[in-house]
Amino acid sequence: DIQMTQSPSTLSASVGDRVTITCRASQSISSWLAWYQQKPGKAPKLLIYKASSLESGVPSRFSGSGSGTEFTLTISSLQPDDFATYYCQQYNSLWTFGQGTKVEIK
Amino acid sequence: EVQLVESGGGLVQPGGSLRLTCAASGFTFSSYEMCWVRQAPGKGLEWVSYINSVGSNTHYADSVKGRFTISRDNAKNSLYLQMNSLRVEDTAAYFCARWAQRDAFLLWGQGTVVTVSS
Q: Which residue from B114, B91, B118 is spatially nearest to B20, judged by alpha carbons?
């Protein structure tokens, strides 16, 4: 089974900050990685697929990069609506989510 | 409107059974692979099960293998999850999600809550 490890688990940041979340896979997953945003009581929302492809309608301040085993999600300038929990997910072999990164207000 | 709507959650005793339903609308359900994903209270997301577009191929997480069965009825635009031998640790919100390799889990339902408790 492929394990996904996100860091950090919690991130405190201010509006306007540049934020980076890292996701590591236990083995190579090529570019088969997605990023989701989830707010309390809501379903996850797809942000990025295939490691770096921005889903339609998602603000361009979100970007993804990486391949193989190391990936990053970057928010270039954090906005009030971005305080949420973020999950990476591999789909190279079945599906596995990272444990999540909660972005909190500093 | 393109949407998925789950139903069937509730309170059940350990060892009991429950059947979840996911009703799809606004898109050609029979063309898509589908999954169930769950989230225990205060915890992260866990993939549970997968079914291909015609229902001939399924996969399960080790945590539910042998206890849960995924199925679909394309004529009714519906996805199901039959959950047997339920355990306390199966307590979670259960989401159905549309799968496509070109755009991952783009479409999700709102979730239905399953509570396993005596």
A: B114
Q: Is B76 on the interface with A (CB under 8 A)?
A: no
User: What's the full length of chain B, in residues?
Assistant: 118
B108 touches chain A (CB under 8 A): yes
User: Among residues 5-44 of chain A, which lie with CB inside 8 Å of chain B?
Assistant: 32, 34, 36, 38, 42-44
Along the 118 residues of chain B, how does pLDDT read in single tens digits?
Answer: 999 999 999 999 999 999 999 999 999 999 999 999 999 999 999 999 999 999 999 999 999 999 999 999 999 999 999 999 999 999 999 999 999 988 899 999 999 999 999 9
Q: What SS3 class is residue B19?
A: strand
Superfamily of domain A4-105: Immunoglobulins (2.60.40.10)
